[in-house]
Amino acid sequence: ARGKTFNPKTLGDYRKTAGADPYATFAKARDAVLDALDHPGVLGKRETTWFGEQTIDEFIRLMAADIAVH
Predict the structure, then answer these.
(1) CB atoms within 10 A of CB 66
(2) If 22 and its partner were Cys, which of 18, 38, 41, 58 is the partner (CB 3.0–4.6 Å)?
(3) Which secondary structure element, helix H or strand E, spans residue 53, and what is its range?
(4) What does the DSSP 8-state code read for residue 63?
(5) What 3-state DSSP class applies to 56?
(6) Do the Cβ atoms of 1 and 48 come closer than 8 Å?
(7) Torsion region of 42: left, alpha or beta (phi above 0 gives left; psi -120 to 50 gives alpha)
(8) pLDDT digits (tens, 9 = 90+) for 3-60
(9) pLDDT of residue 3
């Protein structure tokens, strides 16, 4: 998205990221995303992603479809 190559190794050890309670870690991250999106106009905001310029809503839809397929 920023003209940089993504290197998954920079994410670190997934076990450390998930923590002792992966469900709680996921729930906390999910709630933070939902809170960030729960404001007027956020989903319609246009951003540049690796798919080009699109709304946040369009990007989320693409990501959800990609997860469902893979």
Answers:
(1) 9
(2) 18
(3) strand 52-55
(4) H
(5) helix
(6) yes
(7) alpha
(8) 566 676 777 788 888 889 999 999 999 999 999 999 999 999 999 888 899 999 999 9
(9) 54
DSSP one-letter code for 2? -
SS3 11: helix
Confirm if 13 and 19 have CB atoms less than 8 A apart: no
Phi-psi map region of 12: left, alpha, beta (phi>0 left; psi -120 to 50 alpha):
left
- How far, in Å, CA of 39 to CA of 52, rounded? 23
| CA pair distance 7, 46, nearest whole angstrom | 25
Q: Any idea what DSSP says for residue 47?
A: E
57/42 Cα distance (integer angstroms): 8
**Identity of the amino acid at 3:** G
